[in-house]
Amino acid sequence: MEIFHQLSGLVEQVSVDEAFIDVTDLPEPAEQIAHALQARVKLDTNLPCSIGAASNKLVAKIATDTGKNQSRTDGYPQAILCVPAGTERIFLSPLPVRAMWGVGPKMESILLGMGLRTIGDIANCSVDRLERRFGKSGVDLHQHALGIDNRPVTVSYEAKSISQEVTFARDTADLLFLRRTLHELAIKVGYRMRCEGLCARVIRLKLRFADFTTHTRQVLLQAPTDQDSVIAGEAEGLLMKLWQPERPVRLIGVGGANLVEHVHQLTLWESETQKERKLLIALDELREKYGKEAVQRADHIRKRHKEE
DNA sequence: TCTGGGGTCCTAGGACCC
DNA sequence: TCTGGGGTCCTAGGACCC
Hints:
Elements: H1 2-7, E1 11-15, E2 18-21, H2 30-45, E3 51-53, H3 57-70, E4 80-82, H4 88-92, H5 105-113, H6 119-124, H7 127-134, H8 136-145, E5 161-172, H9 175-196, E6 198-209, E7 214-225, H10 228-242, E8 249-261, H11 272-290, H12 298-307
Parallel strand pairs: 3-4
Antiparallel strand pairs: 1-2, 5-8, 6-7, 6-8
Helix pairs in contact: 7-8, 9-10
The structure holds a DNA duplex.
């Protein structure tokens, strides 16, 4: 990512190992930039990478995937594929619908059922038919099949939600264990929110049963929070709504959504919650210095011992 | 791919208000 | 008192992505 930033200020990081770079303002041709960038990444990190270049994000993304698939001969894919402006539709046309960004297994089978095999078939299909079948996203799908995508490269990134979840090695029907796990997850979520300076207005619980059915419950808070105890408490309340003693649980997760920036409350007296905030921040700092297990709350430990 | 841990966006229905 | 239409907010679930 550092290497990308040296190239252009307009870098949109999509995941740990993927990014869009807007090189519109650079004088060199895209192909030349791509080769230099790939060489640079290899030299500095010894990592292979694939690059797709096009006039918009959608086509660049598909170009990367396509190049990667084509070069899947031996070893790592190290592809470069450039799609010149004006040739987007021609490039996409022969590709299978599954190659379209946003088309997964479900949509693929629906499209095949409609007799649409390639992206070109989607492009030649009437917008009305696609809209009837897929709603608003059908209109987008048609545009994308034509190679049209107006989404800009977005530099700043704001998280929409923060969550933690665990899948158990064995399904469990142990409520005490679930509640304890919930607490541990809530602590991690709260920590991450405080690191980002964010508070959540919505607390969400996710539960997956042994048969893989997944349920979520959420609650809208009066006031946004970044506090472990509040997150844990709300999540526990939600757990009791979903919990069925006879249904073992495979996964449990906690998250915060509707995130807002943390603002300090202007009250005359420090409330209990503000005291707890200060305590939590102090604990966060200790954990950063001495590791995650360095500090634990005595009341939590006592509770645990009693339970055990 | 019988399934890990994050995320995002969209849809549909219900409650509530004017 | 009942009905209609439209808008917003909230909740739950599904599809998809890396």
